Amino acid sequence: MEQRILVVEDETGIADNITFALQTEGFAVQCCTTGGEARSCLAEGGVDLVVLDIGLPDTNGFDLCKEIRKVSDVPIIFLTARSEEIDRIVGLEIGGDDYMVKPFSPRELSARVRAVLRRSGRGAKDSGAPAGSPLAIDPNRKIVTYFGTPLELSRTEFRLLEALMSRPGWVFSRDQLMEMAWEEPEASLDRTVDTHIKTIRAKLRAVRPDINPIRTHRGLGYSLRESW
Ligand code: CA
């Protein structure tokens, strides 16, 4: 059965590009340009994921998302044109599942849509299993293997990598990573995150020099590569 994506975006050029890309990937797409229309579409049901622009003529994506969250856990991917909005989204208080910063490539959005659907357990049942990540955690032995090779990680490096692996593709700020990986975050300096990421990268590179799975997002933080 086709999965239905609701695109809420008032810029028709962007909406058209997104629709085309998603339809090419086999999704059924419904577009609307206002929060009001989005509410009626959602009330009808059957929406598997919402692509939600933050700047809408009659409301904003944040408020609409909060409204949706009261009644539904449908995955939501935000579209934003402004970097100051990213902090709010990344803060996770809003309840979105991912975000894209304009301008973005529609293909990249399609990849995010698939990833979010997969994470939320709504992935297409009939599609082939996605290529597994070469990074795996052995929860009993507390070790990470990379292409089958166990990595020798310090405790902090392990927890940092574990944090990034919990949400591939998601951009974690340095503060978030510190909260997740340090026992006493207040006692550390911000730059130590960078230092540890550097040593993790070196250990990954020792296994596969041709791949850099940890992405730096300038001014934002780090993410782990999502598709392999
Ligand atoms: Ca807009």
Short description:
This protein is of the alpha/beta class and 228 residues long.
Describe this structure in words.
There is one protein chain. The protein is of the alpha/beta class and 228 residues long. Helix content is 40%, strand content 18%. It has 8 helices and 10 strands. The protein has a 5-stranded parallel beta sheet with strand order 2-1-3-4-5, with helices on both faces. Strands 6-7-8 form a 3-stranded antiparallel beta sheet, covered by helices on one side. A two-stranded antiparallel sheet has the order 9-10. The longest helix has 17 residues, at 191-207. It is elongated and about 50 Å long. 29% of the residues are buried. The structure holds calcium ion. Calcium ion binds at residues 10-11, 53, 55-56. Residues 10-11, 53, 55-56 line the site of calcium ion (CA).
List keywords for this structure.
228 residues; alpha/beta; 5-stranded parallel sheet; 3-stranded antiparallel sheet; binds calcium ion
Shape: elongated
**Tally of contiguous helical segments:** 8
The portion of residues assigned to helices is 40-55%
Report the bound ligands by name, code or SMILES. Answer: calcium ion
Structural class comes to alpha/beta
Number of strands: 10
Could you tell me the radius of gyration in angstroms?
Answer: 19 Å
Strand coverage percent:
15-25%
Low-confidence stretches: 125-130
Question: Please, what is the average pLDDT?
Answer: 86
How far is the N terminus from the C terminus?
Answer: 26 Å
Strand order of the largest sheet: 2-1-3-4-5
Largest sheet report:
5 strands, parallel
Query: What pattern of helices and strands is seen along the backbone?
Result: EHEHEHEHEHEEEHHHEE
